[in-house]
Predict the 3D structure of the following.
Amino acid sequence: MPSVRALRASDEFAREVVGRIVRVGLASLGVLIVLAGIAVAPLPGPGGLPVIVVGLMLLLRNSFKARRTFVRFQHAHPKMVFPIRRLLRREPEILLVAWQQALRIERLIVPRKLRFAVKTRRRFRRHPS
């Protein structure tokens, strides 16, 4: 049976110090994961984006300064940050974000007549199941 004792100031101070150490450790881990995602990004496939999102989740949840900077960047570039924000939600919309990004990339790269994803989307809109 645990002993019953009153909370002491030293206990509260120790919890605060441990909490700060954990927060700094998680923020540092988030920075390392973001850097790893940037390093992996040039490789084929979407490997970099999920790694960067996981690193941002850790960093933004544990660093007030990073969160403030992210909000400023979001206000300056809302279209660029919107997919990342959708992936940072508690229940991320992974398939919807991937589809939206595929449409954007296709619009940038593929000529209008050869766009497969846009034609597929239009077919599904016409014939709802």
